[in-house]
Amino acid sequence: MRRSLRAVFLLLSLTLIGMILDGCWSRREIEELALIMAAALDAEGENQVRLSAFIINPREIGGGQPMGAGGGGGTRMPGEIVTAVADNFAEATRRLEEHIPRRVFWAHNRVIILGDGLARRGLQSLDWFSRDRQMRLDTVVVLTEGEARRVLDLPPGIELNPGRIITGILNSHVILKVELKDLFAMWQARGDNPVVPRVVLLSPDEHSGSKLQGREGRPGGGGEGGEGREAPPAQAAPAAVRFDGAGVFKDDKLVGYLDHLETLGTMWLRGEVREGVITFNCPAHPEGQVAVRFYRSQTKVKPHVEGDKIRFLVKITAEGDLTEHTCDDSLKDPAQVRAMEEALRREVEKRAEAALDKAQKELKADIFGFGEVLHRQEPKFWKQVQDHWNEIFAGVEVKVEPRMEVRRVGMTYASVEAIRGNTGGKKTSPGGR
């Protein structure tokens, strides 16, 4: 009897396992999906939004003929740009499917591009992107002046689609990078304000440095202006992008921009610098230059509360290697290295002070997260100032103390010009032997 019950139980178990392994009820075959690789968000009219999506074409990036081979003779885009206008982005996503024969799939999206028209309306229109289960919170977010849709017109180059082009540049660790989760965290925190990197479109002339006429220098050009006419410069497709500065949000709306130097200062103050190069004039010989590549940095922010007054001490430490040195000084002398480190310290301080000056005097917005530091370390005092923190931040004293250390100076102590001058033009070894 027990054996019969065991046999029945085993049979039922095998049947259930077979039903479970038979397949997933919610599966989607890749042939049924439209894979979005980049999305551009713009304002449309007074109250509507426009969603433009770059949808990859598997036949162009897979096997078979390479792009540009066969029939047309021009460069074929590895995807298609589809646009939909609606009252919100949830509805716009559904309307995209009215134009394509596949189900829209967001899990492969790499970048969200905000047009400044939508950004000035406010970030509340992005609520759908924080809720949809297909959305990846590590998707990068960038801002552009004018129409975000134009960024999707980037021609394929080293990378095949605009999503990979933008994320590839941001992954270099030398540019401010903001992901979707970072944007929502800065937006929701009372002691912080969002800062989003700004992407600038480059024309073929700006990208190549040549003086091209019309669109003849662009791959596949000459046929997009209609009847051979040159398209207006404002509508010409971009040849490349460059990151230049960042947009600042206050009360969830775009209120202004930081330039390149101010953005670098913001990165130092927020502790988001990973690596990069700083170039400055030689301390004793302004005609020469020094370049230091830093590869390790740390920022610590300490608030000091005395009565109703607040001060912040920002300590920045970084280490780097000397990569170029055209000064006449010999680095055998430790005093010369210390002078170089002091000049490097002043350069970092200049960047930080430029960012502080812009944030406090003009934008009146805490874009460094100082309020969140105050919230964590002085929670009782924070409750008194949290409702009007941006106004208080504008008058807060901030002291920046950078400490830079040059660890390695390379294979020679002096510049090539200094070695040649000391030997009368005779060849010598880098060490002067």
Keywords:
single chain, 433 residues, alpha/beta, GMP Synthetase, Chain A, domain 3, 2 domains, six-stranded mixed sheet, four-stranded mixed sheet, 13 helices, 13 strands
Oligomer: single chain
Distance between the termini: 98 Å
What's the SSE pattern? HEEHEHEEHEHHEHEEHEEEHHHHEH
Overall shape: globular
**Mean pLDDT over the full residue set:** 81
- Count of domain modules: 2
Structural class category: alpha/beta
Number of strands: 13
Low-pLDDT runs: 63-74, 211-234, 423-433
Radius of gyration: 28 Å
Helix content: 25-40%
Characterize the largest beta sheet: strand count, sense, and whether it forms a barrel.
6 strands, mixed
Per DSSP, the total helix count is: 13
Share of residues in strands: 25-35%
Describe the 3D structure.
The protein is an alpha/beta fold and 433 residues long. It has two domains: 197 residues, no CATH class; 175 residues, Nutrient germinant receptor protein C, domain 3 (GMP Synthetase, Chain A, domain 3), CATH 3.30.300. The chain contains 13 helices and 13 strands. Strands 1, 2, 3, 4, 5 and 6 form a six-stranded mixed beta sheet that branches. Strands 10-11-12-13 form a four-stranded mixed beta sheet, sandwiched between helices. A three-stranded antiparallel beta sheet has the order 7-8-9. Strand 5, helix 4 and strand 6 form a beta-alpha-beta unit. Helix 8 crosses helix 9 and helix 10 packs across helix 11. The C terminus is likely disordered.
